[in-house]
Each structure stands twice: as structure tokens, then as C-alpha cells.
């Protein structure tokens, strides 16, 4: 199977290095060298697609697509005194940011909810801001309003196990929300952290609790959504009981934060400087390299595989995920999970660019043809030889009714094979996909979902049926 890595390359000052080639990289997986089969340099902005034709829809508006950075102020996992210090620091340091167009601000509340102080746009298409004055100029008023809105007293008997679950669920929800944006996205998580395990004296059952499976699941979802986590640990010096302490397990919040950063390709915690972390995350998200290599099926041994990405050029520092759990899955399980999540989401995912139309059959008003073009530049087209490229796509169609019913088709494989000339044509014109479908009773829109097995990227496009069926 093709494994996909998102890699950031910076110089000694933290500035991006943008002129690397495939020959500059080496990858080892569990100590074994793996030849690179797919390579691409990702920039923070996308070139505009051709204009839409009449009756055609797209899940992007081209140059407007961006790679957001999200700042998460974690109230749930900080003490009262630390929360106040952190709030003041965010106000002081973010107020001077000159470029905040792609920066968003959320709070994790004391009851585990996500509060959007400066929230993500409702769709990738509305995600472009061109304000002359950044929103961070009003950060004091935004912070005060947010804290008043979420103010409540922590329950004295809140269970640490519950707190960990609420935290991981919130991060999972953010990763899912960010998946609608193309390319790499970063979460700067300002927190004291959570334990990776609980000793028996601190769990509600009296048993040892290991959160590693949940961390692995979260890291996999972040990987699939193109999200990296940049933790900034905020803990008062001299505090007798840090919120994220492991309580006898031997593995506390700093280990948890660093492990999650390593598994998602973020930067480990090592500073309380929130502004520096935000600036670095914004810089990293705007320039990265996508590297793909084949891992044989027999290597899925259920163990943790350490990854190492090396740049041969001197003076270049590489930031990439440091490993993954090589658990074998049933054939098609990953595609089913990703497509199911895309169908359930309110918004279209735009990691893979799609454009298309829905045409009602003039002889049968309960049948329609879906005609789409898939942006080949968003697909991991692995190079098999000097003149051969291949990709593995999985596609499903979902019909929606006004009263909330959903019906999803079976997943259709679309394996593509191109010569070099065919690949160039696909990059210019897109990869075509057409399918005839039966429209169930009351269906008023159809969503096309495309999953790339190579990069695990996802794209979806919702097409309105319109009034042709009398809706």
C-alpha cells in the first residue's frame, strides 16, 4: 500500500525551504529504506480552476482555497490561575500579528464543548478574508466576550478519565471540521495536556487505564484530514498537581503532547511562547512536501513503526510524523470510514478538488447522470516507471432528502493508469468520472465523494437536483 507523508522543510531560522526535489529526501520505515514513488511540493495557495460552465458546480473557488491554522485555548485542561495567565498572553501576543487571515480561534470549554471565538468559515468557498485590518486587532474584546460566554465553575468531582475522553473527542471533531479544507492544516493547542495513562488510584474503576488506543485513533484521523498538532504546554511552575499529570502511571501530559505532535507531524511542546508557535504553524502550513512510498502488506504487523525522513542537503531541518501503528485492516475499511464521514458532514470536503453537474434523464425523471472531473493534482499518482503513473480512487454517491434521509451507494473503484503524456493531460483537464443513478423519492441533492487510497485525501461535491422533480 502507498503511504503518504506530509513533510515540512525549514532552515536554521525556521524559514521554509522551497526548492527541494525528490532526490533530496530519504525515507526509512521500521529501519528499512523505502524508495519514494510519489513527490509533490505543496504551496499555501491553489491556482484558480477554469471558469464553471452553465449548470456546473465545484467544491472550490480556486485561489480562495487556503490552509488554515487553528488556535485552541484549552480551558478544560488548565487550572483557574493558569487560564487567566494564558488568556492575557494570547491577548498580548496575538494583538500584534499582522497576518491573521488564515488564523482561527476556538476555546475548549469546561464541559468539553468547542466555542468558536473566531470560527472557521462555513465552507471552504467562503474562507477568504481580505480585510485590511486583521481580526486579531480586536482580540481583547473577542477574548472577553468568549470567556463571559463560557464562564462556569469546574465540577469538583469531574473524573480524569471523562476529561481525557472529552478532550480527545473535541480534537477529533476539529480534525473532521478541518478536513473540508485542502492540504495541510495545523492546530496550535494551548493546554496543560492530558495523561497518556491513569494509575488505579486515579481511575473511576480502580483499574489501570491506557489511552494509547484513543491517541492512535486520533492520530489516524488527523493524518487522514491533513492535520498536524502543535502543542504549547501552559503549566504554572511549582504547581503541586498539574492538570495533565499521569497520577502514578509514569507517563504524563508532556509525553502525551509530544507523542501526539510526533504522530501527526507537528512540533513537540518546548516553549510557553504562544505567538512563536502560531507564527511557526502559519509558516509551516504554507509550504510542505508530500512524499509517498510503498509499504508491503506483510509489513502491517500490528506494531509501532518508526519513520525517519532525512534531507540530504546540509542545513535543512525536516519535520514529519515520526511513526505510525501498522495495524492491518479489512480491505476497503479505510475508504468506508472516510466516505461515511464525508457523507455525514454538513459541508463538502475540499482536499480533492471536484467539479461537475447533475443531468436529469429526459426519458425518466427519476434517473440522472452525474458527470464530474477530479483534480489530478490532488491525487497521489505514484510513478511506477519512467513513463507510467497510477492512482487508486474510491467513489460513492449519496442522495439526501429534505426531511434528513440519506442513502449511499456502494463504493466504486476507479483505478487510473497514465503514461507521462496522459498524466499531463489529466493534470490539465481533470480525471473524468460519470455514473447513472436512480433518484429515490424526495431526493433533492446528490453528493459525490472521492477518496484517494494513496494520500487518504477526501473530496466531496454536493449537486442540487433542483425543481426538475417537482420539489
Summarize this structure as a short list of keywords or feature phrases.
471 residues, alpha+beta, 6-stranded antiparallel beta sheet, 5-stranded mixed beta sheet, 25 strands, globular
Average of pLDDT = 84
Helix fraction, binned, reads 10-25%
Ends apart, CA distance between termini: 44 Å
Q: Could you tell me the number of beta strands?
A: 25
Total helical elements: 8
Can you tell me the residue ranges where pLDDT is under 50 for at least 5 consecutive residues?
A: 125-130, 236-241, 243-251, 467-471
Query: What is the C-alpha radius of gyration, as a whole number of Å?
Result: 23 Å
Structural class designation: alpha+beta
User: Into which percentage range does the β-strand content fall?
Assistant: 25-35%
Q: Largest sheet, if any? A: 6 strands, antiparallel
Q: What overall geometry do the principal axes of the alpha carbons give?
A: globular
Amino acid at each position: 500500500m502507498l503511504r503518504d507523508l506530509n513533510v515540512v522543510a525549514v532552515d536554521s531560522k525556521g524559514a521554509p525551504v522551497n526548492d527541494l526535489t525528490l532526490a533530496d529526501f530519504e525515507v526509512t520505515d521500521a529501519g528499512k529504506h523505502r524508495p519514494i514513488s510519489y513527490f509533490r511540493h505543496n504551496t499555501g495557495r491553489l491556482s484558480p480552476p477554469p471558469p464553471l460552465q452553465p449548470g456546473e458546480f465545484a467544491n472550490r473557488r480556486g485561489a480562495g482555497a487556503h490552509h488554515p491554522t487553528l488556535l485552541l485555548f484549552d480551558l478544560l485542561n488548565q487550572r483557574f490561575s493558569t487560564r487567566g495567565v494564558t488568556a492575557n498572553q494570547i491577548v498580548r501576543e496575538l494583538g500584534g500579528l499582522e497576518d491573521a487571515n488564515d488564523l482561527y480561534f476556538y476555546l475548549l470549554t469546561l464541559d468539553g464543548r468547542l466555542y468558536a471565538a473566531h470560527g472557521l468559515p462555513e465552507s471552504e468557498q467562503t474562507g477568504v478574508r481580505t480585510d485590511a485590518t486583521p481580526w486579531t486587532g480586536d482580540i481583547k474584546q473577542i477574548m472577553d466576550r468568549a470567556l463571559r460566554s463560557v464562564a462556569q465553575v469546574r465540577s469538583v468531582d469531574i473524573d480524569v478519565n471523562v476529561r481525557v475522553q472529552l478532550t480527545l473527542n473535541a480534537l477529533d471533531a476539529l480534525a473532521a471540521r478541518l478536513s473540508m479544507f485542502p492540504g495541510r492544516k495545523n492546530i496550535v493547542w494551548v493546554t496543560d495536556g492530558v495523561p497518556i495513562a491513569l494509575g488505579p488510584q486515579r481511575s473511576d474503576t480502580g483499574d489501570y487505564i491506557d489511552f494509547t488506543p484513543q491517541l492512535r485513533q486520533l492520530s489516524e484521523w488527523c493524518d487522514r484530514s491533513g492535520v498536524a498538532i502543535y502543542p504549547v504546554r501552559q503549566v504554572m511552575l511549582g504547581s503541586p498537581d498539574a492538570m495533565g499529570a499521569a497520577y502514578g502511571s509514569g507517563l504524563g501530559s508532556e509525553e502525551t503532547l509530544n507523542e501526539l505532535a510526533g504522530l501527526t507531524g507537528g512540533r513537540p511542546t518546548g516553549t510557553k511562547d504562544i505567538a512563536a508557535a502560531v507564527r511557526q504553524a502559519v509558516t509551516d502550513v504554507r509550504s510542505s512536501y508530500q512524499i509517498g512510498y510503498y509499504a508491503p502488506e506483510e509489513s502491517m504487523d500490528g506494531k509501532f513503526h518508526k519513520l525517519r525522513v532525512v534531507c540530504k542537503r546540509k542545513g535543512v531541518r525536516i519535520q514529519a510524523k515520526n511513526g505510525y501503528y501498522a495495524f492491518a485492516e479489512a480491505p476497503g475499511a479505510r475508504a468506508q470510514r472516510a466516505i461515511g464521514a464525508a457523507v455525514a458532514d454538513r459541508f463538502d470536503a475540499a482536499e480533492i478538488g471536484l467539479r461537475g453537474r447533475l443531468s436529469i434523464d429526459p426519458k425518466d425523471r427519476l434517473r440522472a447522470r452525474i458527470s464530474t472531473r477530479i483534480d489530478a493534482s490532488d491525487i497521489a499518482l505514484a510513478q511506477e516507471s519512467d513513463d507510467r503513473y497510477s492512482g487508486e480512487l474510491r467513489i460513492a454517491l449519496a442522495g439526501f432528502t429534505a426531511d434528513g434521509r440519506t442513502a449511499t451507494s456502494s463504493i466504486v473503484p476507479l483505478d487510473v493508469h497514465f503514461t507521462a503524456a496522459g498524466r499531463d493531460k489529466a493534470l490539465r483537464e481533470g480525471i473524468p468520472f460519470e455514473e447513472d443513478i436512480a433518484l429515490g423519492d424526495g431526493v433533492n441533492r446528490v453528493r459525490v465523494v472521492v477518496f484517494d487510497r494513496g494520500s487518504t485525501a477526501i473530496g466531496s461535491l454536493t449537486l442540487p437536483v433542483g425543481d426538475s422533480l417537482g420539489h
